[in-house]
Amino acid sequence: MRDFSNSKRAFAEADKYMPGGVNSPVRAFKNVGGDPLFIAKGKGAYIEDIDHNKYIDYVLSWGPLILGHADDKVVADLQDATTRGTSYGAPTELETELAEKIQAIVPSLEEMRMVSSGTEATMSAIRLARGVTKRDKIVKFIGNYHGHSDSLLVDAGSGMATFDINTSPGVPNALAYDTLTVAYNDVEGVKSLFKEHGKEIACVIVEPIAGNMGVIPGTQEFLQTLRDETTKSGSLLIFDEVMSGFRAAYHGAQSLYHIKPDLTTLGKVVGGGLPVGVFGGRRDLMENITPAGKIYHAGTLSGNPLAMTGGLSTLNQLSEDLYTKMTANTKRLMAGIKQAADDHGVPMTVHSVGTMWSYFFNAGPVNNFDDVKASDTAYFAKFFKQLLQQGIYTAPSQFETNFMSSKHTDVEIDKTIQAFNNAFDAVQKQG
Ligand SMILES: *Cc1c(COP(=O)(O)O)cnc(C)c1O
């Protein structure tokens, strides 16, 4: 058995100063029962906790670290950048360089604004949509997560799903009232909503490949319906690609479906482990943002030079070839995990798109939040603990996604498949 005593002590200490002992809820391991691991360092595909236990890491900071931990080039570029100062609050060429790079990869971002988190990106995109359409209502999908701003904390995925909360106390009723929700992949539900409310809807915001209730790809018909209905009713379509961007595919989910949203939000990988979010899209829309237009947006650390460097250094190392390789690795891992479940007679559904993957203790099919909720979360909790014992660090919730990095090779994948087999054996032994 691995010894977690230093992490246990560190958590008790943290709990004196921070609610639940953490700065973001799912980190707390609360719904898998147990204390979170405190991390000392990471390199490549591996992390090490403060008790010197080593793990193959598939959380990767919840997505950003597509090049794994402490990539040599990213670290060197950051070290170099810090010698010139950490922030100026004035323009730098780095911002233009990153914007140019992003646009080359995701061309629908004709103009964009850098922010410091995915939450800021989606919040600002919603404000822009409401401002230009002069409408208040927005549509989101049950189990999709778009950060923690008021209008978007309704029927949300991620921590909200993990802790079974519909909306948060503190969200004004008026805002929740203007957020209309529909089941994910529900084409008829979308059509009837637009029939009734079409002319009041400012925008639809959607994760084209949902990643905050595990990985659930949107169907082509579903996403095309969103494109058609928003166009017909004069509302905007926002693809929230904070997770799927540079993850589902090099050019994002939008390239897989050949659907062009009006606005896109990015985060996670775009900062390469530093705090960056982006919202952008049609030039005619973006030109409404201050100071070009009147819809307000600002940020003291927006476009921060260190954050821009983290993003640039990461994106500059990505390529189509790298995604082909990572996607193949992810598929091989999925096949191995599914085989392990089958061999142990455990019902399981595995989903992956590009470098995003998840496993549900559920015979499937898993197409929406109700399906995910039918998964065996008690089994998940037991299994998760065994994986930790086996040296595999995955997301501590059935409602979260795991990731692949460029540093995970055949060696790590084979070890992981073996670890899943061992974990099934161990759970079965417990009875
Ligand atoms: C993570 C995430 C966000 C929120 O980003 P933060 O940087 O955590 O604020 C928004 N949308 C999606 C799809 C996400 O996965």
TrEMBL record:
GO terms for molecular function: glutamate-1-semialdehyde 2,1-aminomutase activity; pyridoxal phosphate binding; transaminase activity. It catalyses: (S)-4-amino-5-oxopentanoate = 5-aminolevulinate. Pfam families: Aminotran_3 (PF00202). GO terms for biological process: protoporphyrinogen IX biosynthetic process. InterPro entries: 4pyrrol_synth_GluAld_NH2Trfase, Aminotrans_3, Aminotrans_3_PPA_site, PyrdxlP-dep_Trfase, PyrdxlP-dep_Trfase_major, PyrdxlP-dep_Trfase_small. Its EC number is 5.4.3.8. GO terms for cellular component: cytoplasm. Its main location: cytoplasm. Pathway: Porphyrin-containing compound metabolism; protoporphyrin-IX biosynthesis; 5-aminolevulinate from L-glutamyl-tRNA(Glu): step 2/2. Keywords: Aminotransferase, Cytoplasm, Isomerase, Porphyrin biosynthesis, Pyridoxal phosphate, Transferase. Its cofactor is pyridoxal 5'-phosphate. It comes from the Bacteria. The modification N6-(pyridoxal phosphate)lysine is found at K268. It is found in: Cytoplasm. Homodimer. Belongs to the class-III pyridoxal-phosphate-dependent aminotransferase family. HemL subfamily. This is Glutamate-1-semialdehyde 2,1-aminomutase. The gene is hemL.
